[in-house]
Design a protein that fits this description.
The structure is a single chain. The protein is an alpha+beta fold. The protein folds into three domains: 11-154, 3-Layer(aba) Sandwich (Creatine Amidinohydrolase, Chain A, domain 1), CATH 3.40.350.10; 167-313, Creatinase/prolidase N-terminal domain (Creatine Amidinohydrolase, Chain A, domain 1), CATH 3.40.350; 316-604, Alpha-Beta Complex (Creatine Amidinohydrolase), CATH 3.90.230.10. The chain contains 19 helices and 30 strands. The strands form nine sheets. Strands 4-3-2-1-5-6 form a six-stranded mixed β-sheet, with helices on both faces. A hairpin with a 3-residue loop joins strand 2 (65-69) and strand 3. Helix 4 packs parallel to helix 5, helix 11 packs parallel to helix 12 (290-298) and helix 14 (319-344) packs across helix 15 (353-370). The longest helix is centred in the middle third of the chain and has 26 residues, at 319-344. It is globular, with a radius of gyration of 24 Å.
């Protein structure tokens, strides 16, 4: 199993750990300490040794922040995690605030005492965050105090850093050589007026050098930094890859050394200091740690703040990456169809969240092997939520929370896979026995929103924020909404959450042909059920409208539960879309199924 169901946290530990941290704060002479969900790379998903926020608070979500003062411990989470945070943390110790509506810097500007000294680890706070926090504290005559991490001082059983091996990712799947990418990025760096680019995002490093790793669960990256020189005389200087040499085996070493010098991550600040005087460094203020910027400036260098130059090109997939994604989604669709057929044959009350999630992973592994591929990993911990657990948007089932799939309930399963040719992410909501009262209406409103995105046509330059409302319109008309984005970018055998584009209320990046995003509206009734319908879609040129317009190609093929649809709420066009989608599912998936599963698929994809 790629997924563990062991308990990862407990609210019972919060009081003692906060007390230990406060003792260290007093010894360091600070009034507050900032604990972000972050590592030195600003990764969304962290290796165990960097899960400081989870260790301190008990909250295990992928987005959060804690401010600890002498008498307060405030945990900030976004709308996906409101219910989860309430369950995982001790309410006598922690106050939960909105990461969006009342972000940490805003909270500080309101609640900081006059002259407050706030300690922080400059490796875990970005250039941009440091400025924002400093400005907030200055309103109260306060200041930021850089420190080594105080949580590490009291975390006695902290795991060791990961040391997974690095593999080369074939050009068959990347579509471009690493040398070609380095030339492009060097030119972008030069145009930004910089001599070097400091790259700290392991996903960008993996994409740039066509390597993959295993340092982070479910995300095939190696923890590494890179220093890329600007282009000179049409030929870039040699980059430096800051990665522990033990991760680079003898078989791939010559290929990696042909691209870059190899140095230890611990040597990066010294290397920057030696180069810095009189030189300019491109740093993404949302990704590069304040510690790195300080090392450059202290040695006489200058910072140019600009976006990581790999961010946009890795989001715009080339033909090889698109072909790989289509192939990955085909085998994934076969696995999901087999799983859904199996689940439909199980009587209510005979399965539970863990056994069902385990069975889904087994179907993926078996199907990949049969179709001459390999399940390299799952792309995130499967969200396997029965009944009220489904209403917790990013629920993670454990041995303690595991529920039986009872009749008269909904089961929400959000899952994905990592194949060498692509990354998948799919959510289906399934009726277990007869659907509960009100579920059909809620499900159909979500489906209408899903179809609105799937069929959207929009001019080039349209941003995700401008089409997010398409998915919410039907829900809004009945006074309903959901507290998460409608779509996130997805990498090519990389992170299942990829910027810069999203379909959301904060989606300010224009969508471009070649981007792959999710289409996943939802609705959640606390204590009863959750509903989400998710396919991945490819942004493409809209052939019917000609130049200047874009639309979506749906990449995911698996049945949508017809038992949960109130047909009276659908328009004729929406019914036509669903029937056409199910016809495509049958055409693509049925040839790969056995007789029993094929018969089930035919029924599941029957016309409305």
């Amino acid at each position: 199993m790629f997924q563990s169901f062991d308990v990862k946290s407990s609210p019972d530990t919060g009081a003692a750990r906060i007390a230990s941290l406060r003792a260290e704060m007093a010894a360091a002479g600070v009034d507050a300490f900032l604990v972000p969900h972050a590592d030195e790379h600003q990764s969304e998903y962290l290796p165990p040794h960097a899960e400081r926020l989870a260790w301190l608070t008990g909250f295990t979500g992928s987005a959060g922040f804690c401010i600890v003062t002498a008498d307060k411990a405030v945990l900030f989470v976004d709308g996906r995690y409101t219910l989860q945070a309430a369950v995982q943390t001790d309410p006598a110790v922690f106050t939960v605030e909105s990461l969006v509506d009342n972000p940490p810097s805003q909270w500080l500007s309101t609640h900081a005492q006059d002259g407050m000294k706030a300690g922080y680890d400059p490796w875990l706070v970005t250039i941009g965050q440091e400025k924002t926090f400093a400005k907030a504290l200055a309103r109260k005559n306060g200041s930021l105090v850089p420190l080594d991490n105080l949580v590490d001082r009291v975390w006695s059983d902290r795991p060791a850093p990961p040391a997974g091996p690095v593999a080369l990712h074939p050009t068959l799947y990347t579509g471009r050589t690493a040398s070609e990418k380095l030339i492009e990025l060097a030119e972008v760096t030069r145009q930004a007026g910089a001599d070097y680019c400091v790259m700290t995002d392991p996903v960008s490093v993996a994409w740039t050098f066509n390597i993959r790793g295993s340092d982070v669960s479910h995300i095939p990256v190696a923890l590494a930094f890179a220093l890329l020189p600007a282009q000179e005389d049409a030929s870039p200087g040699k980059p430096t890859l800051f990665i522990y040499e033990t991760k680079i085996g003898d078989a791939i070493r010559p290929a990696v050394e042909e691209l870059a010098e190899i140095a230890a991550p611990d040597d990066m600040l010294d290397a920057l200091a030696r180069l810095a005087e009189g030189r300019t460094f491109l740093c993404d203020p949302a990704l590069v740690a304040a510690a790195i910027a300080e090392a450059i400036k202290s040695a006489g260098g200058r910072i140019v703040e600009a976006r990581d130059p790999a961010t946009l090109p890795r989001a715009i997939k080339n033909e090889a990456e698109i072909a790989g994604s289509r192939a990955a989604h085909l085998r994934d669709g076969v696995a999901v169809a087999r799983f859904l057929a199996w689940l439909d044959r199980q009587a209510p009350g005979t399965t539970d969240e863990i056994s069902v999630a385990s069975r889904l992973e087994a179907f993926r592994a078996q199907t990949a092997t049969e179709m001459n591929a390999e399940l390299k990993e799952i792309s995130f911990d499967t969200i396997s939520g029965s009944g009220p657990n489904g209403a917790i948007v990013h629920y993670r089932v454990t041995n303690e929370t595991n529920r039986t799939l009872e009749g008269n309930s909904l089961y929400l399963v959000d899952s994905g896979a990592q194949y060498e040719d692509g990354t998948t992410d799919i959510t289906r909501t399934i009726a277990i026995g007869e659907p509960p009262q009100g579920a059909a209406e809620d499900f159909t409103l979500v489906l209408k929103g899903h179809i609105a995105i799937a069929t959207a046509r929009f001019p080039q330059g349209t941003r995700g924020i401008e089409i997010d409302g398409f998915a919410r319109h039907a829900l809004w008309q009945r006074g309903k909404d959901y507290a998460h984005g409608t779509g996130h970018g997805v990498g090519a055998y990389l992170s299942v959450h990829e910027g810069p584009a999203s379909i959301s209320k904060r989606g300010m990046e224009a969508l471009e042909a070649g981007m792959i995003l999710s289409n996943e509206p939802g609705f959640y009734r606390e204590g009863r059920y959750g509903i989400r319908i998710e396919n991945l879609v490819l942004v493409r040129a809209c052939e019917e409208l000609g130049g200047g317009f874009l639309d979506f190609e749906t990449l995911t093929f698996a049945p949508i539960d017809r038992r949960l649809i109130d047909v009276t709420l659908l328009t004729p066009d929406e019914i036509d879309w669903l029937n056409a989608y199910h016809a495509a599912v049958r055409e693509k998936i049925a040839p790969h199924l056995g007789e029993t599963d094929r018969a089930w698929l035919e029924a599941a994809c029957a016309k409305l």
